[in-house]
Write a structure and sequence with these properties.
Layout (H helix, E strand, L loop, with lengths): L14 H20 L10 H14 L3 E2 L12 E4 L2 E3 L13 E10 L2 E10 L5 H19 L7 H12 L5 E2 L5 E3 L6 E5 L16 E4 L2 E3 L5 E3 L6 E3 L5 E3 L2 E5 L4 E3 L17
Antiparallel strand pairs: 1-4, 2-4, 3-12, 4-5, 6-10, 7-8, 9-14, 10-13, 11-12, 14-15
Length: about 270
């Protein structure tokens, strides 16, 4: 099983792996689509967690976060000022809340990993704008993926868009290689300089998952060891796709089958 361990080397995958990642990515995207009608006022986040678990089991997939390093839930639900790794609980959604739901399924040995923002009822304009900017930053990061570019090009594409909007990019968390392993090389930092960092080559597979704060970029992890929040209590948002580097560009494995992976994020009435 040595090939299943993180060994500091960036793996280059072939067509069989890309086919497996397409299947896993589609399933995660379909699960996130299913949740669009479930995120509403009065629904607790542990209800979302139960739905994710059931969806995975119904489709022959295992939620990769469940019991990962002791984490006890099938997804992460990061609400308002929670940056990432928010743990589901019995607290219900309220009007005006924003939440990132992060799902990873292990399907036939491959990890599909994605997250999206959802809104509850009427959102404050600042929350809507934060979500729009964060989504656009993800698109710009994805567009920077092609052979010959670098990880720094991805980070620069995100940072150079976000900061002129008077928002900040979180430094403490990053994207990561993914495939047979949940977390692998390379790290995908969401800020940087063009031409710096690891060279992008066909066959690389990783996540891009910018976290953007309305206030300062600083975060702290709460005493539960998982929940990361903004130090200044400002709102935070995140979008995530899993992508593969192709011979001439990029393939996104986690696009929504129904086109529901982009703002606006409020549930249709």
């Amino acid at each position: 099983m040595a090939q299943m361990r993180k060994n500091g080397q960036i793996k280059l995958y072939g067509e069989e792996a890309f086919a497996g990642m397409r299947k896993a990515g589609r399933l995660v995207a379909a699960c996130l689509d299913m949740l669009v009608d479930e995120v509403k006022e009065g629904v607790p986040t542990d209800r979302i967690d139960a739905l994710v678990f059931a969806f995975g089991m119904d489709h022959g997939a295992y939620p990769a976060t469940l019991m990962y390093r002791g984490y006890e839930y099938s997804c992460c639900t990061s609400l308002n000022h929670v940056v990432c790794h928010g743990m589901p609980n019995d607290k219900p959604f309220r009007d005006g809340d924003i939440v990132n739901i992060d799902v990873t399924f292990l399907l036939d040995g491959w990890h599909g990993d994605a997250s999206r923002m959802y809104g509850v009822g009427e959102l404050p304009r600042r929350a809507e704008r934060l979500i729009d900017v964060t989504y656009e930053s993800l698109l710009r990061g994805v567009a920077a993926v092609k052979p010959g570019n670098t990880v720094g090009d991805i980070g620069h594409a995100i940072q150079s868009y976000v900061e002129p909007q008077h928002m900040s990019v979180v430094r403490d968390f990053c994207g990561h290689g993914v495939g047979k392993l949940f977390h692998d090389e390379p790290n995908i930092v969401h800020l940087g300089k063009p031409g710096e960092g690891s060279l992008l080559k066909p066959g690389m597979i990783f996540t891009i998952e910018p976290m953007v704060n309305l206030g300062r970029p600083h975060v702290k992890v709460l005493s539960d060891g998982w929940t990361a929040v903004t130090r200044d209590r400002s709102l935070s948002a995140q979008f995530e796709h899993t992508v593969g580097v192709t011979a001439d560009g990029v393939e996104v494995f986690t696009l929504s089958p129904k086109g529901l992976d982009k703002p606006p994020v409020r549930r249709a009435s």
